[in-house]
Every structure is written in structure tokens, then in C-alpha cells.
Amino acid sequence: MANKLQVVTSPHIRDDKVSTARIMQDVLLALLPAAVAGVCIFGARALLVIAVSVLSCELFEYLSCRLLKRPNPLRDCSAAVTGLLLALNLPVGLPLPMVIVGCFVAIIVVKQLFGGLGQNFANPAITARIVLLTSFAGPMTTWAQPAGFHTVDAVTCATPLALLAQGSQLPDTLTLFLGNHGGCIGETCAPALLLGGLYLVLRHVIRPTVPLLYVGGVALGSWLLGFDPLYQVLSGGLLLGAIFMATDYTTSPITERGRVIFALGLALLTLAIRCFGSYPEGVSYSILLMNLATPLIDRWCQPSPFGARAAAPAKKGGSAS
Amino acid sequence: MSAIFKRGLPAIQVPHHKETAACHTVQMPDPPQVVIPMSQHIGAICEPLVSVGQQVLVGQCIGRSQAKVSACIHASVSGTVTAIEDFVTTQGAISPAVTIDSDGKHTMDPGLTPPKVETVDDLYRAVYDSGLVGLGGAGFPSHIKVDPTNPNRIHTLIVNAAECEPFITSDYRAIIERSEDLLHGIRAVVQYLQIERCIIGIEDNKPKAVDLLRQALRSEADGRIKLHVLPSRYPEGAEKVLIFKTTGVIVEEGRLPADYGLLVMNVSSLTFLGGYLKTGVPLVSKVVTVAGSAIADPQNVIAPLGAPYRSLIDFCGGYVGEPGEVFMGGPMMGINIYDDGLPVLKNNNAIIALSKADRIQMPESNCIRCGRCVAACPERLLPAMIDRAVYRNDIEALRHYKVNLCLECGCCAYVCPAKRQLVLSNRLGKRKLREADMAKKAKEGQNGK
């Protein structure tokens, strides 16, 4: 028999439309509108921050994988996604060394030290942001006045949530929606984020469950607590977090039922921190805390296997299936 | 409780590839030599009844076992027995195999007559003598299914005409070309086992067959046979899934359909039975779909049992270029053939050859917990978690995740973006669980519990 025939386990066909790399590429594409909007609103430095972040993440991933002898991962673009997402979570004026520290935390600490792709215990970008916030509180809460595309010497301002807390003049809804106000690079422009989210839903990368329930929960809850729901939804990192970080596969529950609990938990925590806590925004911490709760949620929400019987007390043969 | 389960079972869409659906089955000529293994079924290996040098005729019984769970083997060509040697199956089992050099005349055994069936015992005897096993691929001896001493009363016969695997159209052709035989077989089983109703489960990607059956059933004397059209998803034809979809019954872990009064038989098995009751010719040939991107002229071929796969492929124009993978069965659950000189077995219903370009093996990468496998599993298992438990050697987790319920249907691995070998890890998990349970039982036996 002349032919060398391959012998592999079934199945012998796969869904070629889907792959890890393609999913990551879709996420990058979905983040592009927000990145472009960030550059338009905050200026050329935003582009610099994004570039430094993406390159640092890629570099750290490459080096750590070589060191830990893991197969070359840059092929799956996940480091680039983390880099871009982290950059969009930072204020435009953040000194570049701090950006690099953030990348280190995201890639090395949260991801590689715990096993690499698919093994991180929390969202790398969010955790890095929190570490930066606690380490470099000043620069991380210095917001530049949006100046359009030309860089201007930092004229600082406050974010919409900070303004709310201070009781100052609030920006009007259109400004809020379009994002022409203080905030992180990628979190302000709602249409850009929503466009990206729609793309991901249509490409079957994410299900709308978590974003809808999270944002809806915050809206409903803030209305019940007497706040303006639209203001709450459009402020802070809620849209960015709900669409791009709460939907991260690895750190959210693996079943639909679990995702519902996850999203509602996120909404509750965000409301609690924003309305009763001293921080003006709570998305980062909510996501981190719910990420930590995900294994527990998975255990609660395990589907009942089809036809399974409850484990019989093993005395005799039992169910010798 | 069962009301909660009334919601649908997950399933996936796979490309149908039913290009051979329009191909009328063609009888291929007898090859110069056939090799017939004595084990082509679940159960005891048969003893050869012939010896080297003996002349045999088509339909002559050449292998039989005393055990109840076994099936007779018959000669598929006429000629001389030239060898009885050990044969290794693709699963690694060893059994003797009878090699017959064909004299090209295809002389039928003159002793073959249609069986006289008047009672259920006659039917049992007849099915046993025919050597029939589940022709859908399972290979379970069919006479056991119609056993009159079975304590469970069967009230529903479910005919599995789903044929959910891509490429395969042999069941479909059986319906189109031999619906008379099919109905005859169904009627026999229903009558002698005193079954109250029969449901034919068929997928909606076979509209011609659906119409044909509807027509035929309209003129059925009693209305006991009903048609149930299923959506064309995979794995609608899996036994547990089919039972749930057609009757709503959930077959619990460790129990059989018979415990619920259900009998499931493949449509080709029943078609063969109908033909056998009319002619008395036992199972000596099989309709095999030969298809795939590496086959020049895909067709449905009536092949004598024991013919080398290569002879079927040559009959269909041979390979197109170099084949990357050849397997028996469908692409979702089929088993690779490493040597195309191996013989056609009773439970083969397809030979698929995929070209090298179609079979680039993607490397496995890390599980990203995307949950697609969870959404796809028809048994509602968590393949991603089972995968992790297997590599951690966590037996208790495997028990908890009920890996023993896995059908090995391949849905999880098909949808996985990381291209993980999930069926492989499920199989490993099952084995680890079994070994751990056996070790535990052995230890308990030792401690005199």
C-alpha cells in the first residue's frame, strides 16, 4: 500500500470559520473605532500610548514564552489585544514608563505566570489598570482636556463621574455621548464602542447577554437610586468594560446561565461602588471581583447532563455504564 | 421533572456533502479475493466453520458462535477458502479471518430459501440466521433486539433514518430504492413483537425520501407507522438524541432504550430484513457510500463483505491525487484506515477519502474557555472542563462532569477555535474513570466488603 495515510482521532473535519487567531483579530478590529476616536479626541499622544502599549505587550509575551519554553503565541494576536485594550483604559497623559509597567503586569503577572493563554485569573487589562491606579494614583487620575488632534499642554479637567461627585456643571448629553470630555483614551466615545460591540455580536465572537444585562442593570439600578441612568451609562468605563472586558472568555463563566449571574453581579458592584463608595467609578473593580468569582459561578451553574442520574451511593456494581 | 428537559438539545450545523444522494446504488463486481473476519459485531468472536481448501458458495454460513451475543458470518463470494489467519482490526482487536479466492461465478448456495416466519420465535431464529447486525455502524447483533424472551415489553419501534453524518447517503438510497423492503421489514417487526407504534425519524435534508415515505404510509393498512421529520442538524441520528426528539423520553445513564419499551433500528437494517424475509439471502453485501474530495467518482456501491477498500475505491475511479486521510464511517465519528487493503465489514456504511489539502491537521492551542463546546454538546457536558480534568488526572472531577455520558459525537471538537482534540481527551477521561473504578472495586473486593 503506497500511500501514507494519516491516522488521527475523530472528528476529521473542523469548523474552519473559527479559530483563536481569528477571534483575536475580530476583537482588534472591533476596538479600532474606539482607538481612532480616542486619537481624534485626545490627540496624537494617544496614538503614542497605544503603540507603546501594544509593542510592550507583544515584547513581554514573546520574551516570557521564550523563557518559559511555551510555543510561540504571537501568532494568535492575544498580546496585541491586551495591549490595545490596556491603552484604551489609560489617560492620554500617562508617562510612557508607567504604560510599560502596566503591560508588564498584564502580560507577565496576570497571564504568563498563571499559565499563559486561557489561564489568567482576571482580565489582564483591568488588573493592570488597577495596579497602575494604586501605584501611580496621581498620573492615573490626571485627565487632559480634549483638544482635538493637536497636542496641547495638559489642561486638566475632571471626568463626568468626578464632576457629578463634585456637584459641578455637568456636560450635556451629546458631549457625553460623543466623548468630547475627560476620561481614558478609549472609554469616552460611545458610538465607536457600540459599533465595535455590534461587530463582535454579528461575528459571533461575543453574545450580547453580558453587555446588555450589565449596562441594563446599571441603568435600571441608577434610575431606582435616583440618578440619571443615561448619564451613568455614558460615563466612566462602563461601555468599554461591558463590551470588551466583561466578555473576555477566560475570565467569565462558561455557561449562559453563569453569564447572567456574572452580568448582574457586575451591575450590582458597579452601582455600589459608584453610588456608595468613594471612588467615582467602579467598573474596574467590579470586573476584577466578578472575575475572581467566576470559578464559583461556574460550579453553581453547571448544566445537568442529559440523562444523568445523581451519583448513587457506590455499594454494589452501581451504574456500570 | 422531565418538563424541564423538554427544551431542545444542543446540536451543530455541519456541511452536509450529500453529493452522492442522487447516485443510484451500483453493484460492483466480486474482487479476486475477500477476507472475512470472524468478528464484525459486538459480542463473541465466531468460530470458522470451514477449512482451508474448502469450496464455498455465496450465502453459506462460514462462522458461528455458541454465545448469544454474537452474529453468524456468511461467505460473500463463491470460491475456495485459501487461508484462515489472525486479523487485526483498526481497533486493535485480533480475530481469525477467512480468506476466499473468488471463482468469479458468484454461485449462490442452493439451500437458501426465504425463512418461514409465523411467530416471534421464528423471527428471532430468522434474524439470527441472517447474520444481521446494526447496519448504522454500531454492529450490535440484531436478533437480540427482537428476542422474545426479553422481559421488557417493547411498545415503540423507532426507525433511525436520520443519517446525520456528512457524505453518507446509503440509508437515503435504501429508502428511495427499496422502500417496499423497508416497509416489509418494519411490518414484520411490528407484527411479531406486537409493537403498538412505529416512528420513522428522518432529517429534512432528504425531501424526496420524506415524500416517498409519506406516500407509502398513506396506503398503509393500519396507521401504526408515523413519520417524524427532524431538523438537519448533527447529531440527530445519535440513539439517545433520536429517542428524545421523537418520543420525548430521556434514556437515563446506565439504562437501555428497551427499559423504556423502545426499540431503535437503523433503516438499512430493516430494509435488509425485509429483503431477507422475501429471498432468504443472508448478509453478504453492504451498500457503502464511497465519497470525499480524494475520490474521482463518488458513488453508492453494493460491495461484497470482505472486499478490500481499495477495490471499492478503484471501482469509483480511484484516488484523485494523494489522499490525506481515509476513514470508514462519517467524518464526525469515523475511524481512520491506515491500509486501504483492509476488508469491508458489516458495520461499514461509508468510505471517505479526503485529499491532503482538506486534511491539514491544525495544531492544538490553549483552551480559551470560550464555551462553544459547552453550547454544542448534545449531552450538556462541559468538554472544556473535562479536558482540563484529564490533563490534571483529576478522577473525581471526571466523575463529577459525567464524562461517561459522552457520545464521542465530535460536536465539541468541531467547534473548538483552539482546535483541541476534545474527543480524544473525553475518551482518555472515560478510560481513566473506568480504570479508577475498577481499581477501587478490586480493592474493595480484597478488603472483603
Which features does this protein show?
heterodimer, A: 321 residues, mainly alpha, two-stranded antiparallel sheet, 2 strands, globular, disordered C terminus, B: 449 residues, alpha/beta, six-stranded mixed sheet, four-stranded antiparallel sheet, 12 helices, 19% strand, disordered N terminus
Describe this structure in words.
The complex is a heterodimer of chains A (321) and B (449). Chain A is built from 14 helices and two strands. Chain A has 321 residues and is mostly helical. Chain A starts with 19 loop residues before the first helix and ends in a 21-residue tail after the last helix. The C terminus of chain A is likely disordered. Helix content of chain B is 28%, strand content 19%. Chain B contains twelve helices and 17 strands. The longest helix of chain B is centred in the last third of the chain and has 25 residues. In chain B, 52% of the residues are buried. Chains A and B meet through helix 1 of A and strand 15, strand 16, helix 8, helix 11 and helix 12 of B.
Short structural description:
The complex is a heterodimer of chains A (321) and B (449). Chain A is mainly alpha-helical.
Greatest interface and its residue counts? Answer: A-B, 44 and 73 residues
Structural class of chain B: alpha/beta
**Tally of separate helices of chain B:** 12
How many β-strand runs of chain A?
Answer: 2
The parts of chain B where pLDDT drops under 50 for at least 5 residues are 1-6
Specify the number of helices of chain A: 14
Assembly state (oligomeric): heterodimer
First-residue to last-residue Cα separation of chain B: 35 Å
Helical fraction of chain A: 55-70%
